[in-house]
Amino acid sequence: MLKNKTFLTQTDTTIGFVSKLAYSLNQIKQRPPHKHYIRAIESLSTLKSFTRVPSIHKNMVRRAKKTSFIMPSGESYRVIRDTHHLLLLRRLGWLYTSSANLSGKEYDEKFAINSADVIVSPLSNTKEASTIYKIGKRAIKRIR
C-alpha cells in the first residue's frame, strides 16, 4: 500500500523525502521525534481542514509560493503549486515533507536512494529550501 511508503521525489523546493508517516522520516533522517515536519498540501481548502489561518495573514498565505507557515498551533504547512509535486499529492492527499538527507548533514544521493521505498523520477539538482514564517494571531516572523 502506497500510503505506508516513504518516497524520494523532487519537491517544489528540493529533492526530498515525503511520507504519511512522520516516524518513518524520523528513522531515516535520524531525527528526534519531538521535531515537527512540514505538511505539504495540495490546496487552500485542504489547509482549512487542518487549521485556521488568522484573518490578518490570509492574503499572504493565499499568495505565497515555496513558503512554509508555522501556525499558532505549532503545526507547519506548505501549499504546493509545483505541477510535478502535485501529481503525488493529489494521489495521496497531504504528506509530511523533509529534505533528503540525514538531520544536519548535506544531501547524499546514495543515502537518499537507499533510504526511500519508492523513487519518483526525475530528480534534479537541489534548489533553495522554502522560506518559513511563524504566524501568530497578530504578528508574523520570518524563521528562514
In short:
This protein has 144 residues and is an alpha/beta fold.
**What is the residue-mean pLDDT, rounded to a whole number?**
91
Structural class call reads alpha/beta
Terminal Cα separation, in Å? Answer: 35 Å
Count of the domains: 1
CATH architecture: Alpha-Beta Complex
User: N-to-C SSE series?
Assistant: EEHEHHEEHEHEEE
Keywords:
single chain; 144 residues; alpha/beta; DHBP synthase; nine-stranded mixed beta sheet
What does this structure look like?
The protein is globular. A 9-stranded mixed beta sheet has the order 7-1-2-6-3-5-4-8-9. It has 5 helices and 9 strands, in the order ββαβααββαβαβββ. The protein has 144 residues and is α/β, with parallel strands linked by helices.
Can you lay out the helices and strands and say which pair or pack?
Layout: E1 6-10, E2 15-19, H1 22-29, E3 38-41, H2 44-50, H3 58-63, E4 67-70, E5 76-79, H4 83-92, E6 95-99, H5 109-115, E7 118-119, E8 131-135, E9 140-142
Parallel strand pairs: 1-7, 3-5, 4-8
Antiparallel strand pairs: 1-2, 2-6, 3-6, 4-5, 8-9
